[in-house]
Design a protein that fits this description.
Layout (H helix, E strand, L loop, with lengths): L3 H13 L4 E9 L16 E10 L3 E3 L1 H10 L3 H21 L5 E6 L6 H14 L6 E6 L8 H12 L3 E7 L6 H5 L5 E4 L1 H4 L4 H17 L2 E4 L5 H9 L4 E2 L10 H9 L2
Parallel strand pairs: 2-4, 4-5, 5-6, 6-7, 7-8, 8-9
Antiparallel strand pairs: 1-2, 1-9, 2-3
Length: 262
């Protein structure tokens, strides 16, 4: 593994050259007519865009590694915005081909600000993308959403129809009461809760689902890898799901094939 400064320079170069690529993970409705008791050929309702990097020498660099490098190098906002631009253009093409997919993209709390929100809104106009089909996901821990500038950014995005999602919710430091104070539209249950079968995990998800009914949130279960995970998520009241049960995150060409088959 090269020293961190060299790897950071390589990442900057890959970003500038457009060598980062996007994997798409489909999201499915679980109720009332989502996938049954198997990964059936039901059409996904949205895709999450995930950044990937194949280094010329090292091969695939884990996202946790290069995302941290980009954040430390103060250019993670450029990575996030490039992923947004490219994935939005791809989803626009799919929608024009008759596949009404929504798009979910990640935004780091490190740069989630009014400036970021204004940039997204401007690019939505330029890309001719319906804001109602876009969800911005922000990581749940450590509770960065409570910063005033982040609240303003959320409200700016919501004002044009963009949805805000709290990603990786695991019932830890962030409580349901904290979530209720935020201008959000979706909670993504982390795989660490989705895959657990104990009463504590069930109660943690039940609290989110109950609050979602009162607040108008959508609840999405991440990490659905088995039929049991799927059935448990449905029983718990999660409305959407994503996970390896339906396959790994895939390049756009594989998504083309998946959409053609449903």
């Amino acid at each position: 593994m090269p020293r961190t400064p060299q790897l950071t320079r390589d990442l900057r170069a890959a970003l500038s050259a457009g060598e980062l690529w996007i994997a798409f993970q489909p999201q499915y409705d679980l109720v009332p007519a989502g996938p049954s008791d198997a990964p059936a050929p039901t059409a996904p309702v949205a895709v999450e865009a995930l950044c990937r990097w194949n280094h010329a020498v090292l091969g695939a660099v884990p996202p946790d590694t290069f995302i941290r490098l980009a954040e430390q190098g103060h250019f993670l906002d450029e990575v996030d915005l490039q992923v947004f631009d490219r994935s939005a253009e791809q989803v626009r093409l799919w929608r024009h081909s008759g596949h009404p997919l929504g798009l979910a993209v990640n935004a780091s709390p490190a740069h989630f600000s009014r400036r970021y929100a204004d940039t997204v809104v401007a690019r939505l106009d330029g890309l001719d993308i319906d804001p109602a089909g876009l969800t911005i996901e922000i990581t749940e821990a450590p509770t960065p959403q409570l910063r005033p500038e982040m609240i303003t950014a959320m409200q700016t995005l919501q004002s044009v129809g963009v949805s805000i999602s709290v990603d990786d919710y695991a019932g830890g430091d962030t409580t349901v009461a904290m979530l209720e104070a935020l201008p959000i539209d979706e909670i993504k249950i982390d795989r660490s809760l989705t895959q657990r079968t104990d009463a504590e995990a069930h109660d943690a998800i039940a609290a989110v689902v109950e609050s979602s009914a009162a607040n108008g949130w959508r609840v999405l279960a991440e990490g659905i890898e088995t039929i049991a995970d799927l059935e448990r998520s449905r029983e718990r009241g999660c409305e959407r799901g994503q996970g390896y049960l339906w396959g790994l995150p895939m390049p756009s060409e594989e998504m083309d094939a998946l959409l053609a088959a449903v």
